[in-house]
Write a structure and sequence with these properties.
- This protein is of the alpha+beta class.
- It folds into two domains: 159 residues, Ribosomal Protein S5, domain 2 (2-Layer Sandwich); 138 residues, 2-Layer Sandwich (Alpha-Beta Plaits), CATH 3.30.70.
- Helices cover 41% and strands 25% of the residues.
- Strands 1, 2, 3, 4, 5, 6, 7 and 12 form an eight-stranded mixed β-sheet that branches. The protein has a four-stranded antiparallel β-sheet with strand order 9-10-8-11.
- A hairpin with a 2-residue loop joins strand 3 and strand 4.
- Helix 2 crosses helix 4 and helix 8 packs across helix 9.
- The chain is globular.
Amino acid sequence: MSEAVGRASGKVILFGEHAVVYGVPAIAVGIDRGAHATARPAALGAASTLELGGRTFEARACGEPDLGLALHALLAATGISPTVHVQARADLPPGGGLGCSAALGVAIGRAVCHITGQDDEAAQARASAWEGVFHGNPSGVDTAAAALGGCLRYVRGEGIARVSPARDLWLAIGQTGVPSSTRAMVEGVARIRNRQPGTFEQTLTAFRTLVDNARLAIESGDAKAVGQLMDLSQMLLSGWMLSTEGVETLCRAARDAGALGAKLTGAGGGGCIVALADDAVDGEAAAARIVAAYKAVGFDGFVARVSRRGGTDDGAGSERAS
């Protein structure tokens, strides 16, 4: 019996989370932690199933949003609905703002599409259906970053464009340990928009300018400017009530440890932060010092590198395993 493998990257949004839902560009990067999946045709007469985290979920067409419903949506998304057994794992904290569900969706979609003979565009369509179960109205940036890796500029409805960093970006990811609900945070921002439409539009304009300047700074290698823009972004996101005490504690610890800038990443309301390390001497060592500072105040974290050459160190894609 043939078996196919799919892989995908985790992601960090450097700039533009939440604003991207309203047409503002976002800059995201694929990181060298992600998800892995294997798929094989199910036995005759069996249902499609997913093994993840020590549990098995059976695909089903209705009910509460969970992995069984998401698996059904993924399998039905392109008009070719195979019956498969999938085993998957993720090296990312769920609800951490690092694109765990998108990475799983892309990895599973790739493994399934290898069996059905479909291309990576179909795999991303399957992953988008999977994401819709969990997040309702996702922007699509998580799926794009999971599939493509590297540094990307994303505009909803227009697609993605590569951003070419002039230097490697060394990031220190800090984990609050508090899961974040993308759906709940997106709905909260929508309520702010409904209550204060004028102020909200002004904030969107600020985000647009910030993202445009951030792209220029990344492509010119101005790490100090990138960090300053990250700090400004954190201020704007806090104004949308997306920050928490844990997020603020981690950001302060990062800056005190020499980070050029720090902010929440993803939905907010918990999850993770991202800090940019100063790579003037040794970016990896600088990022490791920031992670040590997280641990000193009771949190966890890890180092991630975004290569100026594009993509991630471990790559992503699909292949036939046997």
